[in-house]
Amino acid sequence: MTDTRQRSFEDNDQKPMGFGRMLRKEDPRFVRGRGRYTDDVQLPGMLHLAILRSPFAHARIVSVDTSAAAALPEVKAVITGADLAGLGLAWMPTLSGDVQAVLATDKVRFQGQEVAFVVATDRYVARDALELIDVEYDVLDPVIDVRQALAEGAPLIRDDLDGKTDNHCFDWETGDAGATAAVFAKADVVVSQDLVYPRVHPAPMETCGSVADFDPVEGRLKLWSTTQAPHAHRTLYAMVAGIPEHKIQVISPDLGGGFGNKVPIYPGYVCSIVGSIVTGKPVKWMEDRSENLISTGFARDYIMRGEIAATRDGKILAIRTNVLADHGAFNGTAAPVKYPAGFFGVFTGSYDIEAAYCSMTAVYTNKAPGGVAYACSFRITEAVYLVERIVDCLAYELDMDPAALRLKNFIQPDQFPYMSKTGWEYDSGDYEPTMRLAMELAGYDELRKEQAEKRTRGELMGIGISFFTEAVGAGPRKHMDILGLGMADGCELRVHPTGKAVVRLSVQTQGQGHETTFAQIIAEEIGIAPADIDVVHGDTDNTPFGLGTYGSRSTPVSGAAAALVARKVRDKARLIASSMLEVSVADLEWEKGSFHVKGDPGTAVTIQDIAMRAHGAGDLPEGLEGGLEAQICYNPSNLTYPHGAYICVVDVDPGTAVVKVRRFIAVDDCGTRINPMIIEGQVHGGLTDGVGMALMEMISFDEDGNCLGASLMDYLIPTALEVPDWETGFTVTPSPHHPIGAKGVGESATVGSPPAIVNAVVDALKPYGVRHADMPLTPSRVWDAMRGTAQPPI
Amino acid sequence: MQVPAPFEYARATTVDEAVALMGRFGDTARLIAGGHSLLPMMKLRLANFDYLIDINDLHGELGFIAVEPGVVRIGALTRHRELLDSAELAGVFPIFRDAERVIADPVVRNRGTLGGSLCQADPSEDLSAVCTTLDASCVIRGPLGTRTVSMAEFHRGPYETAVADGEILTEVRFPVRERGGSAYAKVERRAGDWAVVSAGSAVWLDDGGRIADARVGLAAVGPNTTGIPEISATLRGEEPSEQVFTRAGEIAARSCEPATDQRGSAEYKRHLAAELTVRTLRTAVARAARGEA
After folding, report:
1. Residue limits of the FAD-binding PCMH-type domain (chain B) (predicted)?
2. 0.90 exceeded by the pTM?
3. I need a surface site. Which of A344, A498, A735, B87 has the fewest CB within 10 A?
4. What string of DSSP letters covers A358-381?
5. What is the chain B residue with the closest CA to A691?
6. How many Å apart are CA B115 and CA B169, to the nearest integer?
7. pLDDT mean over A605-620
8. Which CATH class is domain B8-55?
9. Taking CA A755 as the corner, what is the angle to CA A750 and CA A761, rounded to the nearest 5 degrees?
């Protein structure tokens, strides 16, 4: 089905009692400037914190002299790594079990690393005082080229780790090496391709920051911070800072975008806490744009070799890959413990193959730590890029249409649940209709004709396809935890006496529209209008425990919790209704919003009637407590596996090598669609991300380790002028294990679009004999590809 | 929020007052017009000045486009948006509209000025290439009066100009000749980015349709925007043709000095210098032939 392109505000006047298109409940406050972000928090006596960062990628700290800064009357504290070491706080655990310096004590290991901080009466003085701190560095050779990280004699970065003698971070493998080698040996065709997924940055509009308010009398810490995972952060603060968990309140107010950038705990958050404890005042830290770009969680940075084995007629037999992963100076990935490479294991894509194998080596370099960020679904972005690119390389070698090749190899509907060769149980899928719809919307055959005609005239037009399967909604607690915290989510629903309701979530929106989507889920289940349901989130004192919003997990995990908690409330309402109508429970029929006696629709009570009775003075059924509320902690039985077919059409100027994305057709299948407008918005955003990554975004470094993407003049993100009018469509294959059949969609478009765009550009360059070109496909890099002189972007 | 170093601020209400303030504070002061280059540099603390002298109140005096017989005079404080919107200017020099359409974004164009663009002397700056192409001259006022320098003399290197401490660029003048046409083209990685390379061309035809004179200005391929006299010499007297344009492109490619950076390789930039020279000459000639100026 295609989404209608015409939209009107009438959609919202007919507010759906459940699923359907409606404008977002939270938007009035955003469009009228009433959003409340961390930087809007103003507290009496609040001080401001600024961080001194290393200008070098790798250097030993010889001395730090803070006396001139501390002498300024407006400066209330200057704290160095040595000071923190005295408190046992110089190092903190990362979400992946490594350690990271809060403030450097021995060495700095990337440009932009935190060295000291100043707390002052205003932000300007705090910033000026940084210039008065005198740090003497002994500059060391950095490791910048990831391919040299394990070379003989490479400078040792992590000499803080006991017994560490090289820059090796971890090795990981999945699949069956022997079985895969056997299949490759017998295959008619083997295609191998080196691919780079460059380092990129999420660059949310709002940078990271926090306001810490420590009450020394009560021993209580209140922390406003830009976090996608307030509960997980609170637990970690309790474990690290020694403040009891019940005395810590983490509040994540409105967030101006996250994209994974706000999953990790950054040194700045900890510094603000220390600053508040030391000064006895509230302390605000808000990083500036450059700090955000050079020091916070990057994404990708995988150097991959993909190999694909197939029969001559295009049956894919096996996929094998070897990856060199650049994790920066500290392993700051936020993947579940058993998954150091995230969910990269789904690199077998949407295809039914005989064998697969991946081996990976991760290394430390003198670059910022991170790795999970940027709408990556725990590294599925890299996996989908790998498989969709090498499938196109195979099509090139077989001289086969890339759409036909994909259609020939899809996992078939009757094979679901499908166990992949790397151990992932795909819950559901029906790929061919999705692919066919995308081709129909694109006018695929006509496009190929147009392309053939243009090629005779020397014009460069490309058509790129990507078909992805995502694995989102982490995750089942028996497999998945982060630092020992299971990846379940709580939900509480309370219906007030007048029939209005409040639902409390453990996940945290960064712009995805949770206040609308979750109200619609509750509305669908108990028939209270979305406008009458208040959605509370982001405050650990006022919401149940859960692991937060990232990896497209909110709807798969927390959305399921919301549906199930509503059903618990409805079950109790049914008991009350039976006593109100004086019939047995079995004689009641539920119609959204009311119970009536079977066969007698006129004899009914609404959920509002029931709510008043539940809180009222009348009798309740024997043994039933008053009130109408419930809570739940939902542990998903599996991930959900949304899929999609994307087709991109590009034109390349043969004279300048400039790429223009002419059309982009995105057909997504995320199961049950709660609010189609919100889904489309997420898809539009993700596709725009994809254009950025494919054509312009890259965090690069010079040989000394200076970050060359330290401002938005240098690190380009796309504008409206680089993107076409998105053409979206959908199919619906509900998840069989999710209570409402929904799958996550927040990252689908970011995951699926880069390979479609790259495939389109490579297809356009086919007359030049180009089989592959690495992102970002800037005009200069496309020109290199046309001339056969392309170099990998490392 | 990026925080600049402390500075003091004064707002001039006349050109004379601005000149006096600049004379008083010397090289510790900087004029601020649109501020879209200066302020980001100050916020990143790449530029630190003790004094900023705001001249935005001088728009009445220095914000104008005067199309006169034989010359177009444009005030230094004329905003990009005014240059983009002026049909009269586009009628004489369509190169301005071509260029303004690809300069930054509407927010920048609402504030940024012609004078600020030239005085920033960024080697990638578009209006500098336009002024080079059109053989503009710059009127500079100082405590001792007014002097005029050619574009070739105006830029002294990256971020350096002929404007001395205590002086202000007040006006830019463009000679108008008969049967002319002009055009501008830019390759950028993304809308609003600085040029990877850009080129401007202006041609003047004789009565027989031959090229009486031609000029090409390139941006982002050297320390300053460059005019290429060899192209002018080569094109004079020629019948316009693809072969002639290609020859001009070849001269452009070998006459420039691009450097490899994040925007592209030096080799690619040389290629673009040729390609964009050809494209803009082609458009400029077509416009001149159609009498579109």
Report:
1. 2-179
2. yes
3. B87
4. EEEEEE--SS--EEBTTT-TTTHH
5. B190
6. 6
7. 94
8. alpha beta
9. 125
Q: In this predicted structure, what is the pLDDT of residue A14?
A: 62
- Are the beta carbons of A502 and A546 closer than 8 angstroms? no
Work out the mean pLDDT of chain A and round it to a whole number: 95
Answer whether residue A12 shows pLDDT above 70: no
- A719 → closest Cβ in B2, B192, B279: B192
Nearest to B2 among A288, A656, A778 (CB): A288
Question: Given this structure, which CATH class describes domain B180-290?
Answer: alpha beta
Question: Which residue carries 């350096």 as its tokens?
Answer: B160
Whether B227 shows a pLDDT value over 90: the answer reads no
Residue A640 and residue A465: Cα distance in Å, rounded?
Answer: 23
Interface contact B189-A696, CB threshold 8 A? yes
3-state secondary structure of A776: coil
Single-letter amino acid code for the residue at A521: I
Distance CA A646, CA A438 (A): 7
pLDDT band at B293 (very low <50, low <70, confident <90, very high): low
Q: What is the ipTM of this complex?
A: 0.96
Does the structure show a pLDDT above 70 at A8? no
pLDDT, position A372 = 63
Residue of B nearest to A783 (CA): B268
Pairing of strands B145-150, B137-142: antiparallel
What are the extents of the domains in chain B? 8-55, 59-175, 180-290
User: Where do we find the tokens 């392109």?
Assistant: A5
User: How high is the pLDDT of residue A617?
Assistant: 86
Residue A216 structure tokens: 């020394």
Structure tokens at A581: 């109508």
Domains and CATH numbers, chain A: 44-140+207-254+262-295 (3.90.1170.50), 298-474+638-786 (3.30.365.10), 488-634 (3.30.365.10)
Cis peptide, bond prior to residue A230, ω within 30 of zero:
no
Q: What is the pLDDT of residues A110-132, one digit of tens each?
A: 999 999 999 999 999 999 999 99
How buried is residue A4: exposed, middle or buried, by Cβ count under 10 Å (0-12/13-18/19+)? exposed
Contact B181, B292 (CB under 8 A): yes
- DSSP H helices, B179-265, are 229-235, 242-255
Determine the distance from the C-alpha atom of residue B282 to the mean position of all C-alpha atoms in its chain, rounded to a whole number.
21
Model confidence at B251, in pLDDT bands (50, 70, 90)?
very high
- How confident is residue A333, by pLDDT bands cut at 50, 70 and 90? confident
Smallest Cβ distance to A124: which of B3, B44, B279?
B3
- With beta carbons under 8 A apart, name residues in chain A contacting B105: 719
Domain B59-175 has CATH 3.30.465.10: yes
The Cα–Cα gap between B228 and A723 comes to 36
* CATH topology identical between B59-175 and B180-290: no
Q: Look up residue B231 and give its two tokens.
A: 């192209």
**Nearest CA to A730 among A647, A643, A619?**
A643
Torsion angle, alpha carbons of A442, A447, A448, A450, to 10: 180
> So what's the pLDDT on residue A618?
82
* Across A367-393, average pLDDT: 89
Q: What 3-state class would DSSP assign to A733?
A: coil
Question: How many angstroms separate the CA of residue A451 from the nearest CA in chain B?
Answer: 24
Which of B5, B262, B268 is facing A128, going by the closest CB pair?
B5
Contacting residues for B55 by C-beta, under 8 A, at least 6 apart: B12, B18, B31, B32, B33, B62, B77, B168
Contacts of B3 in chain A (CB under 8 A): 123-124, 127-128, 288
Q: What is the DSSP letter of B238?
A: P
* Tokens coding A349: 């894509």
Six-digit token pair at B61? 């005096």
User: Torsions phi, psi of B175, nearest 5?
Assistant: -70, 140
